[in-house]
Amino acid sequence: MKKDLGVKPYLFPMPTLMIATYNEDDTPDSMMMAWGGICAGNMVALNLEKEHKTCANLHKRMAFTISVPDVAHINEADFLGIASGNKMPDKFARSGLHAQKSEKVDAPIVTEFPLTLECTVESIQEVHGDYHVLGEIVGVLAEESVLDEKGRVDPVKLNAFVFDQFQNGYYAIGEKVGQAWNSGAGLMKS
What is the DSSP string of 107-134? Predict the structure, then answer.
């Protein structure tokens, strides 16, 4: 029997995404967030509380990068989700991570994270006191160490982790348990 839990943001898994922008003084800023993802072949959607320093940076620069953090950098990623750029202007420097300027957008690339999407801001809408950001992907960078023999990202090598909304945990991902558009194909025959 199922129990009614009320209205909660209970989906699993939630991605852990590192959003990087430049501050007004050209220093890098980065925050971890989970309420975002791919919404079209070349588009991403982010849902951010408008008080985040990242939101002010998005309005000014109209560009950002999204990185997928790996388990090796979970402490730094979590710190960037805890610390506020409004209260701790040097939070990126304190993380010990490094950044380089994107060649395609006016935003930093966090060099330690193995997969980065370079994005321009398509639109920012205020909805219920938060910002819904739509970004266009204009480039994707991946460390060769996370690619398979065909040059595609290998999820096991990526060694990413996801967020659990139920108990605020992080979980490593990587075990393949099926093949999309194939595992259920046998049920097509009747």
Answer: SEEETTSSEEEEEEEEEEEEETTEEEEE
